[in-house]
Amino acid sequence: MNLFETVKASVSVPDAAKRYGIQTDHHGMAICPFHDDRHPSLKLNPDYYYCYGCGATGDVTDFVSRLFSLRPYDAAKMLAEDFGIDPDRQPSGSTPVQHKHPFTAMLREDERYCQRVLCDYLHLLEDWKERYAPGSMEEGPDERFVEACQMKDTIEYLADVLTVGSLEIRVAAVKDLMADGRIGALEERIRKIKNDERGSGINVKKGYEAG
Fold first, then answer.
1. Residue 37 is part of which domain span?
2. Which residue, among 108, 124, 103, 104, has the nearest Cα to 43 in the 3D structure?
3. What was the pLDDT predicted at 136?
4. Do 113 and 155 fall within a single domain?
């Protein structure tokens, strides 16, 4: 194995992020250091990272290279030194795991798409819950505040499923979200809401402009 392969097999993206000061929430999401991010939009998976806001993606070496403005080789050397990796020794457990149901490229793309739309909707609900909260007991609740209260926990749960669920559970969740164009309809609704709010002069929060 060369240096890049050894580092990738030895260090996960979340471990590298934690080592270099990137904090994640319980969804494995973090504030993206690669753009002006106000809500966590950077997803840290074991083998790769992806930002739903700016589109930054890559493996652990790419992450460190971009984080510290290093050449990829220098980033790999930095990881090897910081994690005590001998580049001449193949790490234990580096044999690829054979999944019972291989996650095809198309299915992975559908999962990322669902995650992006759910994350976008969640940011919208969080904004609505704060912005349209009733100012007094006598004031009737805004329908957007009601929707935020009703849907926020459900969307958080679905986001958790796609983040930490088993392969079989994630496959089932993606299939359900993609059925009958459900996730596409949600994406279109979010886009229309953003356009309407921009047209009304409402300051749309940057955190859910990723869609």
1. 3-82
2. 108
3. 80
4. yes
